[in-house]
Amino acid sequence: MSSNMLRYKPLEHRDSFRLLHLEPSPNHSADLKGSLHHATLSDCDYDLIEPYTALSYVWDDASQRGVIFLGGSAKDITASLDAALRDMRDKGRVCRIWAHALCIDQSNNAEKGLQVALMGRIYSTAHHTVIHLGKSPPGFEKLFMDLKAQSRTTMHANTSGLEQLSLTADDIDGMRRDLLSKPWFRRVWVFQELVLSTDVWVQCDNLRIRWHHFCEAVDIKSVVS
Known about the structure:
It holds the Pfam family HET. InterPro entries: HET, HetReg/Transcr_Mod. By secondary structure, the chain is of the alpha/beta class. The chain has 2 domains: 124 residues, no CATH class; 68 residues, no CATH class. The chain has 9 helices and 9 strands. The chain has a 9-stranded mixed sheet with strand order 5-4-2-1-6-3-7-8-9.
């Protein structure tokens, strides 16, 4: 597929941005389908549009591609964005997502400059930000399940997140090494997205956990502080 099959409609206002309305599917391998819609940050300030999720991820090798169908047009996307959208796609409802590579016309330098200037507000206005780390390393599912169970209980003030997990210290050390080897943690600019966001979640495959629970369990606060 060729990305020039999609024609972006120009943004009308200085605080305008696009949101992807990602269509639902119960099938993870089904074609990605959706539509791009214009919104303004002013509308967001007054709750005139439904909440959206901002995506934080790392672009990968452009030679590996996916495709999303938008209103009958096809748009090439990187493999990492393809994976993130598939993992975030809901089985039964439309998801409203802001993703830099898709919601900004990358062929329009003037628009890119204006949109980059708005990115701080786009992330801070989002209802959630999802950090998509890609594939889960071995054992990650167990860690995520433990973290979800832990988040439903009250943590004791004198008990660390690590002590409440059923995984061993060696398991956690292995998870931590795998986590920090992810490309997301080697890119400086993504930390700006993290700091600007109000409700941050970490996702690997279809597993999602709140950022602060994740940090408590694998002791990575020193990495991002």
